[in-house]
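#help-structures
NK: newbie question, is this the right format to request a structure? protein is 1,2-phenylacetyl-CoA epoxidase subunit B
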Amino acid sequence: MSAETQTPATRGEWPLYEVFVRGKRGLNHVHVGSLHAADDQMAIHHARDVYTRRNEGVSLWVVRSSSITASSPDEKDPMFAPSGDKVYRHPTFYDIPDDVPHM
């Protein structure tokens, strides 16, 4: 097979995926690691095999790393400082009923 007819998967250039697992007792998905896979379905199957071997998860998310956009830790102050002067965003102004779970 020539280099022109090879796909990224046949050349061993599978994309990198980030894996998130929601545990049985957890409310949120938590980043547990990364893996390479040829496509989304393979990524789900590999994530299941690698990160939930002991039945510790109830839900998986796999996301191509190239699709994630993140802020830089160096931008922490300019990115998050503006919320400090908006006191209405703090939960101290709201009454939360006793029957509301997980707050």
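mod (FA): yep, format's fine, and the tokens are attached above. The CA atoms of residues 14 and 38 lie 5 Å apart.
NK: thank you!
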